[in-house]
Amino acid sequence: MAIVKGGSFLFEDRAPNEVFTREDISEEQQMFAGVAAEFMQKEVVARSEQIYAKDWPLTRELLLKAGELDLLRIDIPEAYGGMGLDKVSSAYVGEQIALMPSFGASLGAHTTIGTLPIVYFGTAEQRAKYLPKLATGELIAAYCLTEPGSGSDALAAKTKATLSEDGTHYVLRGQKMWITNGGFADIFIVFAKVDGEKFTAFIVEKGPGVIPGHEEKKLGLDGSSTTAVMLEDARVPVENLLGEIGKGHVVAFNILNLGRLKLGSRNIGGAKFALNNALAYSKERHQFNRAIASFGLIKRKLAEMAIRCYVGDALVWRTLGAIDQSLETVDAADPMQALKAIEQFAVECSIIKVWTSEALALVTDETVQVYGGYGYSKDYPAERAYRDARITRIYEGTNEINRMIIPTRLLKSAKDKLPNLHEEISDILDRTITEPGGEDMLFVRRKLKNAKEIAKLALAAVAESYGDKFSEEQEVVALAADIVIEAYAVESALLRTEKLIAAKGREQCLLAIDLTSVYASDAADRIGVSASNLAAGLGEPKKLREAFERLSLHRPVNTVAARRRIADAMLEANRYLW
Prior knowledge:
Layout: H1 27-44, H2 48-52, H3 56-68, H4 87-97, H5 101-114, H6 116-121, H7 124-136, E1 141-144, E2 160-163, E3 169-180, E4 187-194, E5 198-205, E6 210-215, E7 226-237, E8 241-242, H8 248-284, E9 286-287, E10 290-291, H9 296-327, H10 335-343, H11 346-371, H12 381-390, H13 399-414, H14 421-430, H15 441-466, H16 474-504, H17 510-537, H18 542-552, H19 559-573
Parallel strand pairs: 1-4, 2-4
Antiparallel strand pairs: 2-3, 3-7, 4-5, 5-8, 6-7, 9-10
């Protein structure tokens, strides 16, 4: 496979054999994920009542068992007691822990945002001291960034770090909020301002001056610990400074980037669990003397849920595969090289975070609807899934922040690749544009070409209209982000399906074609609306609006029939199939 650079998808076309898909996951990776799935089913779900009752000693016991099964050491280098596996393996395990989101949050916070700061930014001494015990679960980690007055604006933090007179330790004073594992963690990655000015990261051990608050009463994830953490003259040895003084933002934002990447497979895993519950219930529930699964509007819901799962898998595994390829080109023993290889995919990671969290929201909401009144009852699984899903649009950077990151990063890294706005508009208005139609991959490829043109034109229009001050125009910038997101999702689904066709033949992939065609058709409509609103937000320059309208033209496919075929196939199999 060709080495793909992060953020290049708008400007380069990929062939199916150049991308990694879910179907490329190896037998070894599947077996390892099977260990995680069995552990979740037999050990975690079986004790769900105790976990929801906030039995933290049990949660720690289960984390230790996860450590014994190697589930905590995947991302830790072998030299420090880990396995040093690829990101695909790590994310595939992450998908399995979505079976119970509360415990998944505890494990995920420990292995990702709690442990990875030390993996990537720790000194050799820090790694040797902490990573082996984090790998086994003997120590549990937490990540402390948010404060009562600073959420998305992390650099507005007020927690202060003051060097002691003898220069041996820092004294930390302040308060952190919404800390996952806060009630029982041993190690805290804390961000504070040295002398009240220089934003810096520290490794803080549980002890005097580190005081967890009460457990928050949350909407969802109520089987995970979430507390404030008060720092009252907590003494932190100078050797526990993480990274460089004044460079805490480098630690914070790169680790959040990794969190967004890992969140994608968990979100889609959660969506699949919810969909399978909805499928089973729709066959059991009868109204008007027939199973509600036989009704068209229920089939439409089930099919749309499946479409989101299929497309979500496509964009998540495509990105993970590209990152693993990039990591193969750097020195694995140098954490900073690895981090730079990952960081170049910041746009894709933000896309994954936004797209998969909103897909999960749609799926869990429709699951409640399929269950009807029972979906509103705590005695049925739909209600908890709905509540647990809501946080995914908030943590790891809100979706609003991530929508700002996408155009910002693209305009910073690829502004010279954008078309000349006025020349591009003239070219579009002068040429003949065929309306894509037909239910096949050629139709999707044409839609994708137009989607990318619209995305580049939208970014160029934003850059020309606002210059360096475009970030103040959040509504318009977010519309550009939505167009970019849809283009990446359509291309990812298309490439996955074309790769399947090449491997199995077209006749064996008719449902995959349906899944891709329906999403592409609906995405084209969403892109058209976003482009129209973007033009209006820019004062609706006539030629720009006309160019958007021409690129948005298409003949819709028969999504009614396609959704019926998708739903019928799942109902016959009693499960999500792809």
